[in-house]
Design a protein that fits this description.
The chain has 132 residues and is mostly beta strands. Helix content is 10%, strand content 22%. It contains one helix and six strands. Strands 1-4 form a two-stranded antiparallel sheet. Strands 2-3 form a two-stranded antiparallel sheet. The chain has a two-stranded antiparallel sheet with strand order 5-6. It starts with a helix and ends with a strand.
Length: 132
């Protein structure tokens, strides 16, 4: 009787469907993004010579300029990708150039996710919610 009840419970639990919907996807192309930003000497371009999967990738570059004191952003932007209460999963790959300088140690942000807080009445607008 205990074994039969346990099997019935497992069948009931396993028959409960979990739904997930992919809301947005890009496989390394310029098509489909809302906009691109590239500040100072930064670039965003679609390339075919260095890819992870598929035949294209987005290459974001920045060139350091000691006389420049502004921001260094080169980004592909997708507006309204998530909202309060969402759970999302994101993936990307990155590659450092062959001559990358590891010494002395340095810190960089490779990616950031920005959240729109304007509807919360807290006085904030768009702010980073995750920085990688």
């Amino acid at each position: 009787m205990v074994q039969l009840t346990l099997i019935g419970l497992l069948v009931a639990v396993s028959s409960t469907a979990v739904q997930a919907t992919q809301s947005w996807h890009n496989s390394g192309t310029e098509a489909g993004w809302d906009t691109f930003t590239h500040e100072h000497k930064g670039t965003v371009e679609e390339v075919t010579d260095t890819v992870y999967k598929g035949s294209t990738a987005l290459k974001m570059t920045q060139i350091y300029d000691s006389s420049y004191s502004g921001r260094y952003h080169s980004e592909a932007v997708e507006y309204n990708a998530y909202k309060k209460g969402d759970t999302g999963f994101y993936g990307f790959a990155f590659r450092l150039q062959d001559g990358w300088q590891f010494d002395p140690a340095q810190g960089f942000n490779l990616a950031q996710f920005i959240a729109d807080f304007t509807d919360l009445g807290c006085g904030e607008t768009y702010m980073p919610s995750t920085m990688i």
